């Protein structure tokens, strides 16, 4: 989709950080067949912005992913302060990196998108109901799974106590709200679990948990629609919303702030 708004060009690079089980892009024979932020990096780049898309371990701990994010910035933007847009767990990784890995002078702003700052009841449910059965398999396959435990409400409570905001960094957020119907069967169970404990949510993270920083924008949509992933059935019915203009508005806010 071509953006209907003029997206500003910021003076500093924009870094997109994926969430749990995420990736930067998937390639096959040199061709990109999937992007974690489909259309977003292209639209922001065509507006003249330098856009970097990080690749972190899909299911490692916040601590490890934060260290990987720092290494990525040291490699790709060693001399430039940056603006970070972090989706879901990527927002926690970014907060940890800024606060606890001495990166405050390298980050101008952090905008978290559907990030469980206070954890998610679905992670609590998963750890309680599924972890005893899945952990032995993941251990056998040597697949890290610390991320699941880091997203529980108890872990995030401790995380927030130990990870204070830095006064020199601007913090903003986006929270999603979504009511699943028959078009979205995959969201029925997690949405119900979270709604019972935390109220309105995007299918994985509640509005209350995603709200953070000096300003929070509400977007209608499920957790992955926040990064512009379309639901095929919804798209076919013409009720899917392209997020390019929404991300353009996030960039516009930073430009209006003088960046």
Short description:
The protein is α/β, with parallel strands linked by helices. The chain has eleven helices and eight strands.
Provide key terms for this protein:
Rossmann fold, alpha/beta, 16% strand, 259 residues, two-stranded antiparallel ribbon, six-stranded parallel beta sheet
Low-confidence stretches: none
Could you tell me the CATH topology label.
Rossmann fold
Count the beta strands.
Answer: 8
- What's the structural domain tally? 1
Helix % is: 25-40%
Word description of this protein:
With 259 residues, the chain is an alpha/beta fold. The chain has a single domain, classed as Rossmann fold (3-Layer(aba) Sandwich). It contains 11 helices and 8 strands. The strands form 2 sheets. The protein has a 6-stranded parallel sheet, with helices on both faces. Strands 2-3 form a two-stranded antiparallel sheet. Strand 2 (25-28) and strand 3 form a beta hairpin. The two termini are 26 Å apart.
Secondary structure blueprint with pairings:
Elements: E1 14-17, E2 25-28, E3 31-35, H1 40-46, E4 51-53, H2 62-76, E5 82-87, H3 89-100, E6 107-113, H4 121-129, H5 131-141, H6 146-150, H7 153-162, E7 170-177, H8 188-198, H9 207-210, E8 216-220, H10 232-236, H11 244-256
Parallel strand pairs: 1-4, 1-5, 5-6, 6-7, 7-8
Antiparallel strand pairs: 2-3
